[in-house]
Protein 1
Amino acid sequence: MTNKITFEDIKNSKEIRTYIKQADESLRVMGFTEHSFAHVTKCAEVAGSLLHDLGYSDHEVELAKIAAYMHDIGNVINRADHAQSGAVMAFRILDKMGMDPKDTATIITAIGNHDEATAYPVNAVAAALILADKTDVRRSRVRRNADIHTDIHDRVNYAVEKSELVLDKEEKTLTLFLTVDTNVSAIMDYFEIFLGRMKLSRRAAEFFDLKFQLNANGTVLL
Ligand SMILES: [Fe+2]
Ligand SMILES: [Fe+2]
């Protein structure tokens, strides 16, 4: 028996919430930026609306939101290979909930293909997740006790006052608009740590036949 599992069901799952919370707690101890509900909910919104705006079905939008919400749970096991361990965890959870194997397959494919070194936009949900995840840069991801002088990730995230991913269907572009406080961080800092992410975003945008652009403080940099 398979059920139609909705994004709402996933958000209301105490089990999934437990893993998200515990995974973020480990990352906090290790000094990583916020990877909790704010991050995964934002990824779900961005991935879902991107697919919606590109004309994908409501069902595919729902799958993208579920994949995005669950994409970082593997961090509860270890940061290394968290995409793959998270995909296996998601398989067990969704299978147990009675999700249609076709839908489970789409979701675990996306989760298993989201992390930098092994990421690949193998389907629309995976491509949308990569774009949502890799473009989530913002001041509120920096933890309260972080030292922005010594940690470049914290500094760059802290410097980003505003970030927005904008789709232009006419121009066939997907642009990440950043407002960067250059008193906190130089734009070069951003490139130093985010070049890999930007390359990946470009590849994911190409899946949709879009050109990925980066616009920082009004200047197109990429
Ligand atoms: Fe991740
Ligand atoms: Fe993430």
Protein 2
Amino acid sequence: MEFITLRNGVRMPILGYGVYQIPQDICERCVLDALQVGYRSLDTAQSYFNEEQVGSAIEKSGIPREEIFLTTKVWIEHYGYEQAKASVLESMEKLRTDYLDLVLLHQPFADYYGSYRALEDLYEAGKLRSIGISNFYPDRMVDIASLARIRPLVNQIEVHPLHQQAEAKQWLDKYGIQMEAWAPFGEGRGGLFTNPALTQIGAKYGKTAAQVMLRWHIQRGIAVIPKSTHIERMRENLEVFDFALTREDMAAVAALDQRQIAFFSHQDPAMVEWFVKMVEERKKQHDCAKEQKSW
Ligand SMILES: NC(=O)c1ccc[n+]([C@@H]2O[C@H](COP(=O)([O-])OP(=O)(O)OC[C@H]3O[C@@H](n4cnc5c(N)ncnc54)[C@H](OP(=O)(O)O)[C@@H]3O)[C@@H](O)[C@H]2O)c1
């Protein structure tokens, strides 16, 4: 495993395991498999509703807590100083830990300054080893990086061969903020797992298109957190440290850039409207479920 040293000296594995969209009933098994094949960095979030399963897998694995780099993210419903602080403490309880290696603000909407201040205070209190942001595009990133008391250490954003984020990377490098790629395979959209350029490069090294994508990110200095529910793919995705892409290979992958998001544009007002509605709907459902529970 290779490590990245964040601006505050904390070492973070460059490759970790993401658990977005892993249902609760299989999440513990998946995380146990991931730990067993060698992952030592896990990426979850309050909004994935699987922190408890991640926590129980860590406990069951018997791996010392300090050997695992554990990340979670504060969801927008918990934004605001007091709520964000309480939500991080609740995440820690679910994850069965008394500290976290990295906590990110999940989205650049609503009261992210108040929420970030909660992260700063928890960081200074020694509860969080590092803090950062997610989905903050250069405009929002420069804003918080310039005005917050503690500059974020990591920004986790959508990055894959079809959306390479070269400009965002330059801005992050300028501020010393580590780029972390979510959906490092673009979830396979646009046929990335069978892309001819990627498979041809892989064939030279006996590697798959997936492995070429991860290697390409790593050689750009970007942290990756691929998700798979299959143990053989978990292994495949870890086996990317025994080969290197040439300058020509890197250029061939760079040529795939479509400079277009494959998922959700945080800068498109219509998408932001959709997002706000989705959050309101989720909150209603959540409140309703809570009410039913208390009957
Ligand atoms: N901060 C954010 O807003 C945000 C947003 C999205 C994601 N994330 C984080 O980033 C992590 C990764 O992103 P993601 O899960 O959206 O997408 P991804 O890692 O790009 O792709 C996951 C998909 O690829 C498949 N896959 C994995 N390895 C493969 C392989 N070697 N060959 C073929 N198919 C393979 C998986 O299928 P199987 O599972 O069936 O193997 C799954 O369908 C998430 O789990 C989460 O932790 C963060």
